[in-house]
Design a protein that fits this description.
Blueprint: E1 8-9, E2 27-30, E3 40-43, E4 57-60, H1 65-69, H2 75-121
Parallel strand pairs: 1-4
Antiparallel strand pairs: 2-3, 3-4
Organism: Arachis hypogaea
Domain GRF-type: 20-64
GO molecular function, one term: zinc ion binding
Length: 122
């Protein structure tokens, strides 16, 4: 991965945000430029991936290694999190469809009972 000069750097004092502008957890990468060889930085996991928008997150990793361990999430882990979230969202959408069907059946039953009561009463 190459660091990009058009990226939006944040001040070193501000630290690494928990989420990037794309809603993803920043990933740790290493610069491959001649000016900053092998220098670690946090960036958007969508950088340089076909079909994905890059939000421009770029922050040099100036903190100690012990601080990085808790913040680092590899791209593979991020992809797994997205798959898990997509599965959960699909499951919730299916439950919502089921609940809507139950409400529809209940409403039809109530209409039927009220209609039956009106016919019998008359």
């Amino acid at each position: 991965m190459r660091s990009n000069t058009r990226s939006s750097s944040r001040s070193r004092a501000s630290g690494v945000p928990q989420w990037c502008g794309c809603g993803c957890c920043p990933v740790l990468r290493w610069s491959t430029t001649e000016a900053n060889p092998n220098k670690p930085f946090f960036g958007c996991p969508n950088y340089n991936i076909n079909g994905k928008r890059w939000c421009g997150l770029f922050v040099w990793a100036d903190v100690g290694e012990e601080d990085l361990r808790g913040r680092v999430m590899s791209t593979v882990d991020g992809d797994q999190v997205r798959v898990d979230l997509a599965w959960r969202i699909g499951k919730i959408e299916a439950e919502v469809r089921t609940q809507k069907m139950y409400i529809l059946v209940l409403a039809l039953f109530i209409v039927f009972v009220i209609s039956f009561m009106l016919v019998v009463k008359a």
